[in-house]
Amino acid sequence: MEATGMTKKVAIVGAGISGLLACKHLMEKGFDPVVFEASSHIGGVWFQTMESTKLQTPKHLYQFSDFPWPATVKEMFPDHRQVMEYIASYAEHFGVLPKIKFNSRVTGIDYGLMPGCGNEDDMEGWEQWSGSGKLFSGTRGWNLTIKDASNATTVYRADFVVLCIGMFSDLPRVPEFPPDCGPEAFRGRVLHSMNYAQMEKDLADELVRDKRVAVVGFQKSALDIATEVSMINGNHYPCLVLIRSVYWLLPSYVAAFASGSLNRLTEYMIHKPGEGFFLWLVAILCSPLALEEGSILLKKSSGFAFCEDGLVLEGEANGRVSADVVIFATGWETDMKLADIFSSESFRERITGSSAPLYRDCIHPRIPQLAILGYVDSLSVMFSTEIRSKWLAHYLAGGFALPTIGEMERDVDKWERYAKKYCKDKYRWNRTGTLIQIHCNDLLLRDMGLNPKRKRNFLAELFSSYGPTDYRNV
Ligand SMILES: Cc1cc2nc3c(=O)[nH]c(=O)nc-3n(C[C@H](O)[C@H](O)[C@H](O)COP(=O)(O)OP(=O)(O)OC[C@H]3O[C@@H](n4cnc5c(N)ncnc54)[C@H](O)[C@@H]3O)c2cc1C
Asked: Residue 44 Cα, ligand 1 centroid: separation in angstroms?
């Protein structure tokens, strides 16, 4: 194993939860990282969100392992302000803030090979990650182009880059429609949940007040918006939530139950990623297909088109729905966002060209000297990202070596086949480990040479729930 490289330059992109975690854990290992943050604040998605947004994950799971929620927060599902305060106090407590360069958007990153050290094509033949398997080669590194608030650009040379740019922001995903069937055919207002979340509360309220609002999607933001609309309009103008498929969203009591049951025994029962008890339960809760309940109306439809005064739902005899405002809560172009940060076409293709690209949800086998954090969709993104931040810091400090590129690719391939088999059309590469978090953590701990069994005895190991605090000392 190589000597550690604490003097090497590590650049972290993004100061949301993932970037803060990466920075804190690298600092603990003796590194002096720099964090480039596009905005003027920390916290990422939690800084600006809808008024009604609360944690969907119970707070004991959405918790830094070594920094408990303050006793003043009694709620099981704190609101976004409480989450923001918690994140800010963590950053302050661990001295992360001075490492952050705010208003510094990384517009591109470029893998620089020094003259005489080959070119990107040579990388195809590499067997070891980063060519030699060594962490820091000295002849290669990343050039980050950074744009500040006055649009001036500078280039920062880093030996290693940690991308923490977030999955749920910036690049909205909007469905495509045939000509004349899209928003252009509609005389009302169409926007994405991102734009709604960015509006001042008064303006957002005004937009939906006494209007027929249709929200497309069934992820958390869709129901947050529907809740806000229904609080403003009540039963007078029920808010329509148009669902194509059901995923991720858990009613709070189910989330509480699920999190309490995050133990080895329940994971044994969930023998395949992507199916099992919890998704089954969600499916049951969300049937029948059309559920009318007071001020929110849920409707399931395989597709729809716009018409002048609303929407036409696919496969329904009387499928016309009148609407004044349509809000797409249809998620984000997560892969494109990640790919776009690479200046070189070949690196972009490496990201978008393989459908399950990250080893341990963190390392692309064919993108050297770079890690990605926060690209795992799980019951608690904080929990899954913190353990990977610890893993990465161990790795960068020389704590273990990565397998060869071929071995990593075979592992990635195994996960992809496993997930595709059971998730079928719900398959997304960044969701493969959602319901088997303990198993994923076991793999990471074994890499670090640590005992993955964190409980005092066999019975506790089997029956008591697992959470971030079990990994406090990792
Ligand atoms: C409304 C909402 C509710 C949620 N609720 C839950 C929940 O209950 N439980 C849960 O587990 N997860 C939840 N999530 C998911 C949430 O995204 C994660 O929990 C977590 O906050 C993600 O943190 P992050 O740092 O990875 O990304 P982000 O919070 O998106 O932060 C990314 C940061 O990177 C910066 N950045 C991006 N690109 C660049 C660039 N090129 N240069 C410099 N800086 C850049 C951004 O400005 C941002 O500050 C929710 C998400 C949303 C939107």
From this structure: 5
